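Lab meeting, item 3. Inverse folding demo.
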């Protein structure tokens, strides 16, 4: 089981008509719905399980500029501004705190990459520091682990994944959002190339626009509309410890182990180098497009052939309006984890921070990351279908960038001037000849 999310009460009446339907109650759907209702747009948010129960409650909770893909920097700058005012905007606590984030470089090559990122980031007004290993040791005196140096961004922070999306949705409901949970969208219906309604397990809702913010399910939802989205899933594992006095002050990553302090006094611990990419029929379809990103990340991602191949081959099919769909059969995507990864990361934790040897592990979980070949999201209209919009593919860093992504999506849906340039995030980049490549800075 994944972490318990804060519960949000669904709206009482089932709507038959609205302006905008948002599919998916993760951080991106939540931020989109919030931004739309704040503009006075009648909006319905449909979630097949519970708000926040998939990736958005399973992540590390880092809200980071540090080492981010340069194409995402304007969007993360906007997001950090939004995070900063979020608790006041919602009237509740998302757990957001500015704590700083430190990413250590273990090799000279990684250290050089991080310095190059610093130069790029300065052009976006981002003030990170390159700490020498001596400066890092001064900052984190409990850690005596050999590194070349570290990127440190004092204005980065963290929030509580189990609280953030629910808090946004609860505030949006108070402002007029109609929220339906345990309400899967089976199909998005179009007439003459235009979105007309969504078919849900509880009936149809007529609407003028649909935003797909379905995380790892977006590929399938789009397939149902006849649109190909080159998206694959990567399994990532994390765990939390019992409350401990240890508090490094900032979120820290040493590659083989990363951690942040939680509001409950424990630590969320993981490693960026333990991803598992299960081979599926989609891996065969899109594998070539992902190969450059996979090669660059190959030490961090293991390919695996197992049950998921046949499961997706036989069961992951686009829905039909009149039949129970895969979205209802899997209310919450809760992938099994490999216990060896948890043991390995716990051992690395003790190696890097000896004071944490033997700390009690309270819970571990997995999440399926919705990944794109260039590791940046799609936030875009879906050109062949008028009224259809897509916000997905956050490739493992959508929690921090979620608030800005939601605002940008609401700009696109309402035809307002976009808060940041949406060009890098257009869906058409996969077909218009752009060179598709991921950036690796950390
Ligand atoms: C272990 C892990 C660590 C991570 N760490 C970080 C981090 O520290 N910082 C960071 O910025 N990002 C991190 N991420 C990535 C981040 O969690 C995601 O990018 C982000 O949560 C994506 O949000 P989302 O709303 O797009 O998707 P999700 O949270 O996956 O939400 C999609 C929702 O859509 C719903 N849905 C799908 N299909 C349907 C349907 N047919 N009908 C109704 N509802 C539907 C699903 O039930 C789900 O709730 C991490 C991810 C993982 C797994």
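The presenter then showed the designed sequence:
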């Amino acid at each position: 089981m994944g972490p318990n999310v804060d519960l949000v009460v669904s709206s009482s009446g089932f709507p038959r008509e609205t302006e905008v339907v948002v599919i998916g109650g993760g951080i991106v759907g939540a931020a989109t719905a919030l931004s739309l209702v704040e503009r006075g747009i009648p909006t319905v948010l449909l979630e097949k399980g519970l708000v926040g129960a998939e990736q958005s409650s399973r992540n590390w909770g880092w809200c980071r500029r540090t080492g981010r893909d340069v194409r995402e920097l304007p969007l993360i700058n906007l997001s950090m501004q939004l995070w900063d005012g979020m608790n006041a905007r919602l009237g509740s606590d998302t757990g957001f705190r500015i704590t700083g984030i430190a990413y250590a470089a273990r090799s000279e090559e990684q250290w050089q990459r991080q310095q190059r990122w610093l130069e790029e980031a300065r052009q976006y007004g981002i003030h990170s520091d390159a700490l020498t290993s001596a400066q890092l040791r001064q900052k984190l005196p409990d850690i005596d682990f050999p590194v070349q140096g570290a990127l440190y961004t004092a204005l980065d922070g963290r929030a509580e994944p189990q609280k953030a999306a629910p808090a946004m949705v609860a505030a949006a409901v108070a402002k007029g959002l109609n929220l339906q949970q345990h309400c899967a969208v089976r199909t998005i219906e179009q007439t003459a190339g235009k979105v007309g309604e969504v078919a849900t397990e509880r009936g149809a809702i007529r609407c003028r626009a649909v935003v797909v913010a379905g995380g790892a399910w977006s590929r399938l939802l789009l397939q149902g509309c006849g649109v190909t989205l080159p998206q694959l899933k990567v399994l990532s594992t994390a765990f939390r410890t019992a409350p401990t006095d240890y508090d490094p002050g900032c979120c820290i990553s040493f590659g083989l182990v990363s951690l942040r302090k939680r509001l409950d006094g424990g630590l969320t611990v993981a490693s960026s180098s333990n991803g598992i990419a299960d081979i599926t029929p989609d891996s065969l379809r899109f594998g070539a497009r992902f190969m450059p990103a996979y090669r660059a990340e190959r030490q961090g991602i293991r390919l695996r052939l197992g049950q998921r191949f046949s499961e997706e081959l036989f069961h992951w099919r686009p829905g039909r309006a009149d039949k129970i769909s895969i979205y209802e059969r899997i209310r919450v995507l809760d992938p099994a984890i490999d216990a060896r990864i948890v043991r390995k990361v716990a051992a690395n934790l003790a190696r890097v921070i000896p004071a944490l040897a033997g700390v009690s592990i309270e819970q571990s979980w997995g999440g399926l990351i919705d990944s794109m070949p260039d590791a940046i999201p799609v936030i875009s209209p879906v050109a062949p279908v008028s009224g259809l919009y897509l916000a997905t593919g956050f490739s493992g860093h959508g929690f921090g960038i979620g608030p800005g992504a939601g605002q940008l999506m609401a700009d696109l849906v309402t035809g307002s001037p976009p808060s940041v340039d949406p060009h890098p995030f257009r869906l058409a980049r996969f077909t218009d000849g752009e060179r598709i490549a991921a950036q690796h800075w950390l």
